[in-house]
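can u pls check wat happens w/ MRU
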Amino acid sequence: MTSSNYQGLNTELPDPIRWEGDKVTIIDQTQLPHKETFLTSKNYRDVCEWIKSLRIRGAPSIGIAAAYAAALAAFELDSHNEIDRKLDRALNEIHDTRPTAVNIRNVLTRLRKLNLDGKAVGEVFLGEANKIFAEEVESCRKIGRFGLELVPDKAVILTHCHAGGLATGGYGTAIGVIRAAHEAGKDVMVIVDETRPLLQGARLTAYELQKLGIKFRLIVDSASGIAMKKFKVDLVVTGADRIAANGDTANKIGTYNLSVLCKEHKIPFYIAAPGSSFDITAKSGEDIPIEERSADEITRFQTCRTAPENVPVYAPAFDISPADNIAAFITERGIIRKPFGENIARMIG
Ligand code: MRU
């Protein structure tokens, strides 16, 4: 694996991931916003480590990374005889990197269904990975366009975590809606939750909005209630890691709280997500696995310990917003409204 660092940040938004020749390159999201560090590797195990450690993160982006990891694993095969054992083992390893975002599973299922008879598996997987990448970016643009009708001409929009270009292959889902509104000339102001404990809002959403020239204010997560009142928030929009058949939605921890606050304040709560983030095999949020992360993410603030030694910790990385709290889903196929069960089955299933 090699690493390179651009001193002096670009004004352009970097690509989250690229394939060049026989290697994959990502921007290390854990180093943002201060350093734009790029990591390059030919080894799928490195890509697995990048996904686990959140160097690449966000549901669609980890789906794309998983597809390129599968291509790298396939290029390691010496013969077709190794597809059953060696490739299968590698695909399982890739699958197990992070459990909540369904994009990884959806991508691997798609690759496993490809016809490999007599073909060079690496090339077949690489071709499909490139297709998946292009589709995700195209989906974001469509999500942005469909979302336009939900954004008033002068709008205050609150968002949580980071669902921008870095998280999605490019352009963004929740940020895509905000970006499309801004590009259409709407007067948009964004309230950005910092998103404890790993600060994806403060580090990444703020970084992207600043580069895009979109007005925003950063708040601590617990200020979202008072901010809804003070700034008269018109809508809340977030991304998703997995959407069940009934519309229950897993997203970054704290999203559920926001969905409840929206109900209290009568603010529409929207989820912007591509079809690749739906899991129609999950009947409800009960069927969605929730990743728990290391206690260190809560007991430390970067290198500084903030909690006493040996405190018991509960560190879920995601929570479930009940379908009932969600006003609509903004997808690349259009806006999905209630009744969700029926409409998700019709538009996604
Ligand atoms: O743990 P993370 O940073 O990967 O969590 C990401 C989120 O929760 C995002 O909101 C979600 O993946 C949507 S990205 C378009």
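The mean pLDDT is 96.
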